[in-house]
Structures are given as C-alpha cells and as structure tokens.
Design a protein that fits this description.
By secondary structure, this protein is an alpha+beta fold. Helix content is about 25%, strand content about 35%. It has two domains: about 5-235, Rossmann fold (3-Layer(aba) Sandwich), CATH 3.40.50.300; about 240-355, Beta Barrel (OB fold (Dihydrolipoamide Acetyltransferase, E2P)), CATH 2.40.50.140. The protein has helices at about 40-50, 90-100, 105-120, 135-150, 165-185, 195-200, 220-225, 230-235, and strands at about 5-15, 15-25, 30-35, 55-60, 65, 75-80, 155-160, 185-190, 205-210, 210-215, 240-250, 250-255, 260-265, 280-285, 290, 300-310, 310-320, 320-330, 340-345, 350-355. Strands 6-7-8-3-9-10 form a six-stranded mixed sheet, with helices on both faces. Helix 3 packs across helix 4 (about 135-150).
Length: about 350
Amino acid sequence: MSSVCIEDLQVRMGHVSILENLRLKVDEGEFLVLLGPSGCGKSTLLHSIAGLLDVHDGRIEIAGEDVTWADPKDRSIGMVFQSYALYPTMNVERNMSFGLRINGVPKDEIARRVKRAADILHLGELLQRKPSQLSGGQRQRVAIGRALVREAAVFLFDEPLSNLDAKLRTELRRELKQLHKELRSTMIYVTHDQVEAMTLASRIAVMKDGRIQQIDAPATIYHRPVNMFVAGFLGAPGMNFLEGQLERDHGRVLFRSACATVDVSGYAFQHTAVHGAKTVLGIRPEHITLKALNGAQTGSARISLVEPMGAHLVTWLDAHGQSLAVQSAADQEMPPDQVVGFEIDASKVSLFDAPTQQRL
C-alpha cells in the first residue's frame, strides 16, 4: 500500500487552465473516488497521476517518492481504462501477462501472479479464451486483472464501468468493493456516476471546474454538502431547493418562502443567522412527508406527476410554482392533480447563503 500526495498541481492545455493549484492527499489503503460532471478535470487529474499527461507545475508523490516527471512505467501504478483495450489475438492469460513478459519477469512468477488475479476475479476457466469470446463484464475483469498482476502500489480506474449495462455495472461494482476489501490497496477511481461513488468510496472528492469542492466520507457529503453544487449533484432525484429568507421571531429562527415556513432554530449554523438574509433551503426527497390537507403541515401543493420506482415512489409536487420531489413508500401512491399537504423534516435541512451558494 502507498499514499499519493499532490501539491499545487497545475495542468494546462494551451492557454486553458484545466487544474490550478490543486492539492490532494490519498491515504494508504484508501478508496478515493473523484466525482463530477464531464469536463470538471477528474480524468485529467487521474492521467496526471498516471504520468499520461505532462503537468505545468506542482508535485506528485507516490509512496513518498517524487514521480512528477517519472515515466508511467516507473510509477508503480496499475491502470484500468474505460475501454477494455485488450489484444484481440491474445487469449486472456497472455493479455494479463503481456506487460510482465515485456519487462522480463520470470515465467514462474508470471504464472503465480496470473493465477492469483484469475482466482480473485473468477477468470480461471476463461484463461484460454480470446476477448471476442467474452462478455463485456468478463472483458473488463480481464482488464482489471491485467492491472492486478503488476502488484502495483496504487490502482487507478478511469470510469471502468461506464460501457456496461446497468446489471453488469451493479455486479462489477460489488466485485470492485470486495476486491479492495481483500487487497487493501490504494485505489483512485474516476466516475460521474454518484451511485458508484457512494457505494465504493472511503472518501469522495467532488470536483467542478478543475477544483475540489468537497472531500469527505460519502455520508457527510450527502447529508452536509458545503455548497449548492455538491448538494444538487448528489442524489436521484437531487436535493430540493427553496428560495426564501431567514427571520428571527421571539427567539426562534424561521425560514420563509412562498410555499413553506420551516422552524430552523435547531440548525447548526456555522455563522450567525441574519434576519432578512436571502437564503436557500435544501431538503432531500426522502425527508419530505406527504400529509392529508389541513393537517399538521409545512405547506400545501398539487401533485403533478408520480414515478413508480419499484421499492418506492417519487411524487412531484407543484407548490406555488416551486417543483418538489418527494420519495415515499410504494404503497402510498396518490393520484395526480390532488392537492395535499407536505411536511419538511427540519432536522434534515441544509441552508445556503443565496448570493454565495455556500453552506450557512
């Protein structure tokens, strides 16, 4: 196991800055996921660590060694790409052992490493098959096996599951998590899929415009996002946002909007709540409850759409022009166009300063 340390990394493409003064520390044995939309710089960062891109400035250390200008082969990394990149004329065993043979590793050592990787990835019966005889999931396991046989200090994954169908993605995601549990190797994984990030990561680094917005445990990022971008990027459906303002009322702190009033006196403000401050309240769909109209409620709304999701429902509300998503049990379906009450769990809200979009 090895740590990865990045200091003041700058990567430019011509006159365009992709990464600017980026700092990141990945601990030994950690599974770090780089998460963000297309073009945010996550793959550029991964390729810089791998040595596939030249950096303009900064420092990259792997296992305490400065590898900023080292060739990829000298960085003790194993990399798995989005495309399988297998040699079509070679069988699985020779695809997995190709790099070792080129580097002159003894045959008995090659056999040992290939057998170990094949056992871990359940490829033992496929070693003599060609890539054309394999399914997409099997091909990606071979690509992972090719990285494993290097017994590298750090494993890098560049959206390895994005070419697979939903069922295969779920299966391989589980296998990758089990693989990390067995190997306890340092892994850095790039994806734009929040489900992959939440299920795989020890920590998630959410990126936007070449900068890390927040890096923390998945649960912390989900429940305590540092800004509206992070809050809106995670979750399906995403977090609901209500625009309003804060009011002080006889010792209480209230959030008021056109469609709801929420007592946020128990909120853990990082700064003093200012009366009249323009504020955005964020609430996850699972933290809103549908109520009978005129009962105890935060507000009322009309049901505009119901989406059955199998184990649960997503009900979309039109609350005085504000669209709200509500997640509820599958047996709680209500017909569209019905007017209902809704209750917001005040203990689960996130509050953001409207001008800066930063967490209050």
